[in-house]
Automatic annotation (TrEMBL):
Belongs to the Orn/Lys/Arg decarboxylase class-II family. This is ornithine decarboxylase. It comes from Phytopseudomonas seleniipraecipitans. GO terms for biological process: putrescine biosynthetic process from arginine, via ornithine. Its EC number is 4.1.1.17. Pfam families: Orn_Arg_deC_N. InterPro entries: Ala_racemase/Decarboxylase_C (IPR009006), De-COase2_CS (IPR022657), De-COase2_N (IPR022644), De-COase2_pyr-phos_BS (IPR022653), Orn/DAP/Arg_de-COase (IPR000183), Orn_de-COase (IPR002433), PLP-binding_barrel (IPR029066). It catalyses: L-ornithine + H(+) = putrescine + CO2. The lineage of its organism: Bacteria, Pseudomonadati, Pseudomonadota, Gammaproteobacteria, Pseudomonadales. CDD domains: PLPDE_III_ODC.
Amino acid sequence: MSIKVEDYYPRETFNKMKAFADQHETPFVVIDTAIISQAYDDLRAGFDFAKVYYAVKANPAVEIIELLKDKGSSFDIASIYELDKVMSCGVGPERISYGNTIKKARDVRYFYEKGVRLFATDSEADLRNIAKAAPGSKIYVRILTEGSTSADWPLSRKFGCQTDMAMDLLILAKQLGLVPYGISFHVGSQQRDIDVWDAAIAKVKVIFERLKEEDGIVLQMINMGGGFPANYITRTNSLETYAEEIIRFLKDDFGDELPEIILEPGRSLIANAGILVSEVVLVARKSRTAVERWVYTDVGKFSGLIETMDEAIKFPIWTEKKGEMEEVVIAGPTCDSADIMYEHYKYGLPLNLASGDRLYWLSTGAYTTSYSAVEFNGFPPLKSFYL
Ligand SMILES: *Cc1c(COP(=O)(O)O)cnc(C)c1O
């Protein structure tokens, strides 16, 4: 398998990023913020009626927060630390949602004191905390969705509750003096099966109708989470196709009078904007006759590539070396045998690849810097540069 850069970046953009990369020691991620800007515009064009809450965990760089703030984005925040960071960039609390369903009561209070009034929940204990610490706030309940097998990075099992419990929670929210505001779901990150949104939206519709008919509660918002695709080796439909299909599902269920729609993209906005540049430390074989080579690089699972866990995300890897390709195992530089990125999925790299050659991991703008360990084996966190 050989990777064509043009499948992932306009040639000019890639050349610009590579020229920058050539002047720096590996490993690092270089991010072209113009790509993020374009991805944001494309998402807005696809879903012109929706509000975008950027999921900050994908990449919390100040450069990205400020870019998206200036473009009018809101922010999906998961901790008091992300909150402080985003607010210190000048984002007001009316553009923030506390989207983590797992939170301490005192952290809810902290958000409330900073002015945040929109909270996700999926359990009674959390809801009661919110009622006390953030009285009168708007509540949306996250429901469980299917789709964990077609998402490359599932997010569903840990979060969300069943439909009946979601209704119970929204009724309780009202009794506790909160505003039962809407429903959220996340179909799983890098979700390749668009039909999963159909099933999720249908579930939401049932909740909207039953709460209205049985309890007189009129919900106003659907938060459709993230899950939109980035470009990795396993190809997906285009974002336009996602938008067309998902809008059709929404209209099938809700007609032309859509409730407020929120999207929380992370990966799809950022991943394609980044290239992780690494260097080959060693190329080795495990026996005199072994066909398979091991390629050890100066970046690994603990320095930004944790999404290679179970080889879930298959990043395209490009190298300048040309020539005959053969299968390799690709592993990181640390003293941990979990630090193997690809062993079962067969990457091919040129036979003449040697120590000191560079590997370019494409589409690595999201979920790399934010996942990097701080000092494992003494290696520093993954550096990043923003063009
Ligand atoms: C991580 C996360 C997102 C972003 O998901 P992507 O698949 O990266 O777009 C959105 N919403 C919530 C609640 C999340 O936890």
